[in-house]
Task: structure prediction
Amino acid sequence: MKKGLLFSFVLIACSCGKPLPDLSPIDLSQWKDDKGGCKNIRASFLSELISQKDELKGLSEKDIIELLGRPDRNELYKRNQKFYYYDVEPGKECDSLMANQQLILRFNAMSMAKEVTVESKN
Result:
């Protein structure tokens, strides 16, 4: 009886996660296909991304990867904070010498997206 109750509790707890946002009209398969922003596909979604960036807050690292794909770069910072970087415009990886825009997600020690910004990278 106790094992069944424990199993039910674990099952309910695991299924109560935050649902993934839709992020329409961003085509997430095209976003994932534009690794490093080299094809300029991500740049075409920039205004929609900026208007919906709060939808990404509170999602787990796993959810972000499922939604946006693997980041172009990541960085581990002090106190177990982690940063994911997605190039929105072509950068050095695309043989571009110009500064580019990038989506930056900061994760807290619990692996939840705490901050979402779009910044220029020099």
Observations:
- The beta strands are 73-76, 82-87, 100-107, 113-121.
- Residues 2-14 form the longest helix (13 residues).
- Residues 53 and 121 are 18 Å apart (CA to CA).
